[in-house]
Amino acid sequence: MAKGTRRIRPASASGKAWDGRFRERTNRLVEAFTVSVAVDRRLYAHDIQGSIAHCKTLGKARVLTPGETKTIVRGLESVKAEFDRGRFRFAPNDEDIHMAIERRLTELIGPLGGKLHTGRSRNDQVALDVRLYLRDQLNRLLGQMEEFQLVLVAKAKANRAAAMPGYTHLQRAQPVLFAHHLLAYVDMIERDKGRLRDAQTRLNVMPLGSGALAGTNYPVDRRYTAGLLGFPTVTTNSLDAVSDRDFMIEIAAALSIAMMHLSRLSEELIVWSSQEFRFVELPDGFCTGSSMMPQKKNPDVPELVRGKTGRVYGHLINLLTTLKALPLSYNRDLQEDKPALFDALDTVLASLQVLTELMRRLKVNKEALKQALEGGGLLATELADYLVGRGVPFREAHAITGRVVRAALDQGREMTSLSLDELRQFSDRIEKGVFARLTVQAAIDRKAQIGGTARGRVEQRIKELERMLS
Known about the structure:
The protein is mostly helical. It has three domains: about 30-115, Fumarase/aspartase (N-terminal domain) (Fumarase C, Chain B, domain 1), CATH 1.10.275.10; about 120-210 and about 235-370, Fumarase C, Chain A, domain 2 (Up-down Bundle); about 375-470, Ribonucleotide Reductase Protein R1, domain 1. The chain is built from 19 helices and six strands. The strands form three sheets. A two-stranded antiparallel sheet has the order 1-2. A two-stranded parallel sheet has the order 3-4. Strand 1 and strand 2 form a beta hairpin. Helix 6 runs parallel beside helix 12.
């Protein structure tokens, strides 16, 4: 060996793809600090799916021979089979799922496995894998949201005649149908589905072929690759393609809003199931007891959903902060995108699944709902609107009704218990027909415009939702 010449170690000495550039092995602390396989191993099927498409694209470009293409594809299918059967064994130096799969492929088919990465970087590879994974996960999540909606609609239909107080400021306001209240959450979830579907349009763009940042030197047909993977279009800027995580932030934002909706329902379930309300009874199998107090039945499931909402919000902030001021193109900071989004997806899906089953088994206490409609001046607005119908300006009608309510409260009575003569002391516009207006059912059924709580409208909406969701 000539003086001053360093012996070159084989690339396989430490198993790193970049061994040729370095004189030292990666420090063990750095190995432990940078490894991501525990998080990204869930991408294995999508990584192999993308690799097969990439291999076929290389074959089409004549970078690989037909025989090489066939051998690599078969090898990748064998690796996937090992994963599917739970037989894949990770090696200590598997830094991420991409390198683990390539290592195993090379063990199975020999040095030919090293040709798979031609014209590809882990930068565009992971960008592809995450998009493929999210595409599947969003479809799964959308399906669960629809099942949740169907359960809410079924529960509304089963209790469509039950009325309850509607609240503003947590004070009794006006009577509404219990079904109408539940269907409000169906509309919320429908908006959540719309946001996720909207995010899917920007998610569904194929980044492979962007290389590390500048594109690739090989004549690959990116549209051909996109067709193999079911993408309608490809990215148009290689720098943006490998560094773009907007779609992940969008999804995290949509998940945060969805979790907020679930937390609102959870809070109502917690309040409604309390002894002070008793509007509903949560199924025993979805509650816990106390280690000290034998009488307790705690609403742990909705409490945990309420608590996990902040966790999902935190993941959105995590992603936004990771991307803040990040220069083009790829930076290792982006490795931190997946733990945040994966956990947000897992949390929302699990929350939907458990709330779906809880709501399916929920018991509605119609008698408690009926009792809650007594007192509290729930029909005051009906009296004011009655006066408006008799030609009294609304502001004056509001003031008159307020005086009626005050007088009834001072006497410890309900407004509707006042006689006609007593009511006429406040306004001579009040006639005997007022009492037909001052009932819960009349108050509900007069709200017959689109979106109102009238029985006919709610029945119609239930039928619309059943058709739409089926």
